[in-house]
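Schema walkthrough. Field components (list of strings):
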Amino acid sequence: MRRWHGSLDRRPALRNVLGALRDPYTYDPRRNSYTLFGLLWGLPLSAFSIFVDQWVIGHPDRLEVFWEQPIHLLFLLHPFLFGIAFGAMGTVYSRQDRKIDGLLEEQRRHLDELARANGELQKLDQLKSQFMANVTHELKTPLVAIKGYNQSILERRFGPLTSKQEEGLSIAVRNVGRLEKLIHELLEFERIESKAYTPLVSDFDLVPLIRLVMTNFQPEVDQKHLTAELSVPEALLVRADYEGVRRVLLNLLSNAVKFSNDGGSFGVDARLAPDPGRVQVTVWDRGPGIPVDAGPFLYSRFWQADGSSRRRHGGTGLGLAIVKGILDAHGLPVRTESAPESGTRIQFELPKVSPPLPSEESSHAHSTTAHSGR
Amino acid sequence: MLTQQPLILVVDDESDSLAYLFDLLHNEGYRVIPTSSPLDALELAAKRKPGLIISDLRMPDLDGMELLDRVKEISPKSRVILLTAYGDRDIDQDVIRRGGDAMLLKPSSNDEILKTVRKALEEVERCSP
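Field assembly_structure (string):
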């Protein structure tokens, strides 16, 4: 598998060789075996050269010529030259190998570290889910008695009330509702995040659902003198999780209402999408819009465009993460268009259900009759 | 013979939630026995055959689901409503499949609780000879 494809670094060969010989990190005891290999190859070559030399000068039996002309002794250098050459080549070769091995080893170590870190993160995530589930459960438990008793007293189940008492209690009950909503949001987000949410798909008419969700915001709409604009056809049959779509609309409209300036307008637009077989839903407002640099974080959990302590709008920052989670589970995209100071439009699509065509129905009926007639 | 009002057994290990449920139902004129122990609840269910049992889902010793199963064995005519802080359709369906009547999400409003109780008791009356 390991193969040397030339030098890894493009340094001149000689410098590479010298560098390899000097480098203690890449020093390889095998280098000696390369040298020995060179020496062994050099020996017969020496003998062969001497023989050829003797034969050429015509005195194969006279070895005295070596002492008379010592230049011929240079042939004896063959083994050493070969030893050096092979030793150097071996070193360079093994150095490349070792470098590759070293890099691979390093890579493996990093991968192991990553895998370990990932495992730890997953464990932590599991712990976090468990923790969130426990915390929300523990938060909800005391709410049972708080909400229940306050409501009972407010409903005069335990006797008459003065108007001041009634006013105070209704504020308390309203705020318990707010707290309950926050806890519910956290719990729901946790379920989506931990992939425990699976859409329960059915066919339903989207229009009454939009109208129903809109009515939830009437108190805020009245309080902030907002204009709600609804642009929907008579009916739009879609195939999705009813409860999921309701949560999506609730969260998007809650944002639209929350971020609308007093006296402003917001609305929902639902129509057939250009893409056949899809219904397009747009929830829009004319609020402050989303800052340009916020794009990548928009759908991440806990994130709010203004996260400072002086921010004007409350909330957990989970609304859009929930929206994205629900639509992701359906395999549907969500798009955002926003310009600072001119509002936000959030758009998603749902699969349309086409009502069976009358002609199809009649042909079906016809074939059934034909079948039964036989 | 005087037709007696059906008995309601309320089970919750949280004493305050238990007190609230007791007060709410008692105030409405129902006959209510509160208990904070699911094991005591089983004993009471066997002895008194309550028309309706309202129980928390998450309890030590015995959780609401197990209680539901055991109640259906020892007092099959008793109706069961479970309360939970987790809203989950899977659990909802599980409760119905195991013979429970309804699953209420905590904290539910008074009206919601009373409506569900009324509906369950109507069933009890309809089924009793």
